[in-house]
Amino acid sequence: xxxxxxxxxxxxVVGGGIIGTMHAYLALKAGHEVVQVERDSLPSxxxxxxxxxxxxxxxxxxxxxxxxxxxxxxxxxxxxxASIGFRPNGSLTVAQxxxxxxxxxxxxxxxxxxxxxxEILNKREVQDLEPLLAGNFVGALRCTTDAAVExxxxxxxxxxEMQKNVNYQWLPNFDVDSFTHSDTGNHISDVxxxxxxxxxxxxCPGAAHAGFLSKYFNxxxxxxxxxxxxxxxxxAEKLGHSIADADSMRYYPGFKNLSLDRLPPQSKxxxxxxxxxxxAPRFDGSxxxxxxxxxxxxxxxxxxxxxxxxxxxxxxxxxxxxxxxGKRWSGVYSQSTSSDIYFRREVAPGAVIVxxxxxxxxxxxxxxxxETITSWAI
Length: 378
Ligand SMILES: Cc1cc2nc3c(=O)[nH]c(=O)nc-3n(C[C@H](O)[C@H](O)[C@H](O)COP(=O)(O)OP(=O)(O)OC[C@H]3O[C@@H](n4cnc5c(N)ncnc54)[C@H](O)[C@@H]3O)c2cc1C
Hints:
The chain has helices spanning about 20-30, 45-50, 65-80, 100-105, 115, 125-130, 150-160, 215, 250, 270, 305-320, 360-375; strands spanning about 10-15, 35, 55, 90-95, 120, 140-145, 145-150, 170, 175-180, 185-190, 195-200, 200-205, 220-230, 240-245, 280, 285-290, 325-335, 345-350, 350-355. The chain is of the alpha/beta class. The strands form 4 sheets. It has an 8-stranded mixed sheet. It has a 6-stranded mixed sheet with strand order 8-2-1-12-19-18, with helices on one face. Strands 9-10-11 form a 3-stranded antiparallel sheet, with no helix packed on it. Helix 1 links the parallel strand 1 (about 10-15) and strand 2 (about 35). Helix 1 runs parallel beside helix 7 and helix 3 crosses helix 12 (about 360-375). The longest helix is centred in the N-terminal third of the chain and has 19 residues, at about 65-80. The chain is globular and about 65 Å long. The two termini are about 20 Å apart. Flavin-adenine dinucleotide (FAD) binds near residues 19, 38, 39, 53 and 207.
């Protein structure tokens, strides 16, 4: 891994989600001492509620795609070191009509299509790869650079690996409510008044924009987004690739210059709930499915049923069989609303907030952490 340091520093990481954990992991690898704190006994927000997708395919051409490709490289290395369920399984964005397929053919001939690992497959080629897809579709856009991890193994797998190093300390149930900077470094205190000091501080609070950090988020170009998710009841047959429907092409900026007006009209329900189908196979034979997007706060605590009916219909059409939903949940992420790929703000010398990577936070997390650690060496 390219992250190397000459001088060991004591690094404090606030937040046990994937952004904080990747900072801890790469800082430790770079030779630093790391203390990572988390308010909960186990992290329970966006990083464990997501699909676990490492999704390169739809990233915007230019710096976002470059960051995703660097992240994908790092995921490959980290996945060979820690038990996180990493696999380079690729994805299939499935065309359910000729017009969707024609937009996918256009995607497969974009200038950077080979960088993304795109190839266009007809129905028989899709079924040679994935016999489980026995439904009514035309073909698919395959992306060989897409990958996946297991969200419920990821954070503990990375921590288990770090805990082999005496320079790593994990402190759960440490709810930070202030930080200060002095000549001796950066200091965090929890709600019980316990203080920890370090040279460098990385604050990775996810969508916790309130509390002691609220003054940095009040006017900041960052918002929260609420999503509904679910998982199907496990089946015995195996699926390798992650799956998306053509609605996903409406949202991913990598496709914005294609003839999206050739896509058939989106269903009213999917449009109202800003939906796409994403489906990630899990080790237990279930599929994580979603998602909806709600941008207007305050968010309701209620999970609404109709979006799941839409997802079930799309899945039935692609798989040629019904897959029953066994679990439903929601999640919230923090998303940058500016042209910045994510939100990074220095709040004191050697102290930085890193969040706001939105629906690409899992994908980009190792490369985002690497950017922070590289900045310390300058
Ligand atoms: C439903 C859903 C699906 C998604 N799917 C994908 C996907 O497939 N691929 C992808 O790339 N991205 C996906 N994302 C986005 C991705 O999950 C997030 O961008 C990423 O998990 C954010 O990580 P984080 O560490 O910033 O935040 P979080 O996971 O929210 O972690 C922040 C942590 O900080 C802790 N914390 C906050 N404040 C304090 C404090 N004061 N003191 C101590 N601890 C504190 C919290 O308890 C929490 O554990 C999805 C997000 C959601 C919600």
